[in-house]
Amino acid sequence: IFRSISAVAVDKNQAAIAIMNVPDQPGIAGKVARALADESIGLDMIMQSFHPTSGHNSITFTVHEEALEDTIRVMNNLKTELGASDVQTDSDCAKVSLIGAGLMEQPDIPARLFDALGQAEINIKLISSSEVKISCIVSREDAVAAARAIHKAFELEKLDQPR
Amino acid sequence: IFRSISAVAVDKNQAAIAIMNVPDQPGIAGKVARALADESIGLDMIMQSFHPTSGHNSITFTVHEEALEDTIRVMNNLKTELGASDVQTDSDCAKVSLIGAGLMEQPDIPARLFDALGQAEINIKLISSSEVKISCIVSREDAVAAARAIHKAFELEKLDQPR
Ligand SMILES: C[C@@H](O)[C@H](N)C(=O)O
Ligand SMILES: C[C@@H](O)[C@H](N)C(=O)O
């Protein structure tokens, strides 16, 4: 059984927002993060991955759903300033995370996690990972089934933790 | 001074690869991660963010640079199977990470981190974050300057750690 895995965490109150097609130049991410900090908007996750067209990129943030409106306002101001193409949002977000130690050291762990969600017919909207936590954003209605599928895939019920 | 920040870590031996425009349906991320696990390819980071066109998405991985060739082979096989548009790679990757506790609780921390890189004229290729670590992929030639800029921005030299 997976000794390095300790728990599955669920946060149903998330929302995602992305500023799309900003210039891929130094200082842009700083401007965006600074504008959010100036309004004391707390961030949960930040993701920037490969972008189809070179010279541009998009930055995705997840925030507490109550902060989404403020975040949209800040991003729309930045859109004009940075010449972004648009701001995309998704208010139907729940974060489901696998928590443990050295999660990325065994390639079978991310595979088993994503397989479990796939077999449960749950679509993954966003992914972020580190050594101690792999997080997937799914729709809120899928959150409970997602947590259950991951529990089962990693035999967490055998740990009998008072979660 | 930032009590919650403890260190800056640098890993110069990374490479990034992304499978672009896969169907945004349940089970796809599982297929990709399983194919990599079957070849025992260790992953460092996994990122999936907002995608410009709905119905498709791209998944970005970072691996040890020595694993890039194997990873490209696996991804090219998947490309045909999943109907992906292409596989993008970047072998010039260094991961520079800020490590601490509760990093996302203070919005000023990500802002200061990205500002520091922007002011040092360092372009951020990929971003991934969690409560205890914010990682940026930059080009290898920028790694040392990036670590130094972050150290300075968070006054880490005052911690006088034998890093
Ligand atoms: C897109 C944004 O991350 C940019 N590359 C920067 O360094 O700020
Ligand atoms: C793109 C991929 O992540 C897909 N949404 C899945 O759930 O597997």
Task: Offer a quick outline of the entry.
Chain A has 163 residues and is an alpha+beta fold. Chain A has 4 helices and 6 strands; from the N terminus they run βαββαβαββα.
Characterization of this structure:
Two copies of one chain form a homodimer. Chain A is α+β, with helices and mostly antiparallel strands. Helix content of chain A is 30%, strand content 35%. Chain A is built from four helices and six strands, in the order E-H-E-E-H-E-H-E-E-H. The first copy, chain A, has a six-stranded antiparallel beta sheet. In chain A, helix 3 (108-119) packs across helix 4 (143-153). The longest helix of chain A has 15 residues, at 68-82. Chain A is elongated. At the A-B interface, strand 1, helix 1, strand 2, strand 3 and helix 3 of A face strand 1, helix 1, strand 2, strand 3 and helix 3 of B. Strand 5 (126-129) of chain A pairs antiparallel with strand 2 of chain B. The structure holds threonine (2 copies). One threonine sits between chains A (22, 24-29, 48, 57, 59) and B (118, 123-124).
Write the topology of this structure.
Two copies of one chain form a homodimer.
Chain A lengths: L4 E19 L4 H11 L6 E4 L7 E9 L3 H15 L3 E15 L7 H12 L6 E4 L3 E6 L4 H11 L10
Antiparallel strand pairs in A: 1-3, 1-4, 2-3, 4-6, 5-6
Helix pairs in contact in A: 1-2, 3-4
The complex binds threonine (THR) (2 copies).
